[in-house]
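User: I'm putting together notes for a lab meeting next week and I want to include a structural view of one of the chains we've been expressing. I don't have a solved structure, so I'd like a prediction I can at least talk through. The sequence is below, exactly as it appears in our construct file.
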Amino acid sequence: MGSQSKGSLDGVQSDVKFKATAKWEYMSASVFFLVTNAIGCTYAATTMVISTIARSSGNKTILLMITILDLVISGLHFSANGAAAAEGVLGQKGNSHVQWMKVCNVFDAYCRHMTAALVLSIIASSVFLLLVAHSIFNLHYYRSY
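Assistant: Thanks for the context. Below is the predicted structure for the 145-residue chain, given as structure tokens.
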């Protein structure tokens, strides 16, 4: 996921040409984003099998525990999305108070890829949260009667 580019910093065109590499491993928020999405994907695949078995056997306790863990995973997803979004804002705008320059004008492809990944992750996290809410309503209705 590395990228090399020649460009300018701070929007000032420069005659100095340089070679720079950006890797997702350099930012801890990107690592957190990737690891959280990998954990969520593995968890979803595992609980899909477990919940199918629990529904067929009528075990409501396992379904309740899965729903609680679903909320935890949903919280992890949204926190990773927030961390990646904050990193993206720093890449787009920089931070003049601590002399961090914006870098997305240099690493355009990297920033576009991270933005696309973040947007898709936010959509997926929102859908996952709606599925958890649906599961809670179904579990409540199932327990009530």
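A couple of points you could mention at the meeting. Strands lie at 3-5, 20-22. The chain has one domain: 27-144.

User: Perfect, that's what I needed.
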